[in-house]
């Protein structure tokens, strides 16, 4: 394993930002699992890893601090031992230690890489303050793809399918492009899922026969608008489409068994809107048992279409 040092300057100058995956590490099982996922991606694509650890500012001196430079060194040592044990000893790894809030540190350094990866705890909602402040903040505000890896994720022996949430908005184009490029690189399928939420008070869980044609025609147009360009760009990628009459979180969860990553758009109509992640996207980040990659549109593209909230 090649380590370019634990100073911020070294981490910035040794690796090509376009070939660097940034990972937030704190020594927790969630962070270690996120590092494992990031290392697998880095190895597959010839990227370097940058491990970022942030610790809170100590307002008052304490006799035995549980955070700081010494603790950061232990976190990096533990993480690098994991990488070596999992067969990633040949990766180029740089480390960055920073004093201050973790979300700001990860957003700053994540913007210098091609992807930011963070872990997600399996603790109950009231205990997931770290996820709320760090993973969600990263997925909301980062300008690069952000992958949130749950603690329960385990790598398969072969690459699995790419699950794609399709909402029909122009602002999800980058997510569609990312999903197809990833599937092409892996040699796997794209499973595109469109969630249709029936109106409040609808008499049953599925459309009435009289309404079914309308919903099917609408979903067909959504898939055509979202996928046709990438189908032409990647003719070898097999695509499966599915319409689920459920909220986006439940819709994608029905297809997660055959996939090891779900890709969703960062800003758009329906699933995620405006400048913040909508409730559906936050639910996806918290609930799906596979890694979730949030892909935002470039700022130029976001100016083309006004945002709405959902």
Automatic annotation (TrEMBL):
Alphabetized SUPFAM superfamilies for the sequence: Adenine nucleotide alpha hydrolases-like (SSF52402)
InterPro entries: Rossmann-like_a/b/a_fold, Universal_stress_UspA, UspA
Domain UspA intervals: 19-150, 162-296
Superkingdom of this protein's organism: Bacteria
PANTHER family: STRESS RESPONSE PROTEIN NHAX (PTHR46268), UNIVERSAL STRESS PROTEIN UP12 (PTHR46268:SF6)
Family designation: Belongs to the universal stress protein A family.
Protein name: Nucleotide-binding universal stress UspA family protein
UniProt source species: Haloactinopolyspora alba
Phylogenetic placement of the source organism: Bacteria, Bacillati, Actinomycetota, Actinomycetes, Jiangellales
């Amino acid at each position: 394993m090649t380590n370019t040092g634990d100073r911020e300057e070294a981490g910035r100058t040794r690796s090509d930002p376009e070939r660097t995956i940034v990972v937030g590490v704190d020594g927790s099982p969630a962070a270690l699992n996120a590092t494992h996922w990031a290392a697998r991606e880095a190895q597959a694509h010839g990227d370097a890893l940058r491990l970022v650890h942030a610790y809170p500012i100590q307002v008052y001196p304490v006799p035995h601090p549980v955070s700081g430079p010494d603790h950061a060194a232990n976190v990096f040592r533990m993480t690098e031992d994991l990488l070596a044990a999992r067969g990633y000893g040949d990766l180029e790894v740089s480390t960055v230690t920073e004093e201050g809030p973790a979300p700001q540190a990860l957003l700053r350094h994540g913007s210098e890489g091609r992807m930011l990866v963070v872990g997600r705890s399996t603790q109950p909602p009231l205990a997931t303050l770290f996820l709320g402040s760090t993973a969600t903040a990263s997925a909301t505000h980062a300008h690069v793809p952000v992958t949130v890896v749950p603690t329960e994720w385990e790598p398969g022996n072969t690459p699995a399918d790419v699950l794609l949430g399709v909402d029909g908005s122009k602002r999800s184009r980058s997510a569609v492009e990312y999903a197809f490029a990833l599937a092409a690189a892996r040699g796997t399928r794209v499973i595109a899922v469109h969630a249709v939420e029936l109106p409040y008070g609808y008499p049953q869980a599925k459309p009435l026969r009289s309404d079914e044609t309308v919903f099917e025609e609408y979903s067909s147009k959504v898939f055509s608008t979202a996928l046709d360009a990438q189908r032409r760009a990647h003719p070898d990628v097999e695509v499966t489409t599915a319409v689920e009459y459920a909220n986006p979180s439940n819709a994608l969860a029905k297809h997660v068994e055959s996939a090891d990553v779900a890709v969703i758009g960062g800003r758009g109509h329906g699933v995620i809107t405006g400048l913040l992640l909508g409730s559906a996207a936050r639910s996806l980040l918290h609930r799906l048992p596979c890694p979730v990659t949030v892909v935002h549109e470039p700022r130029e593209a976001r100016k083309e279409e006004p945002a709405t909230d959902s």
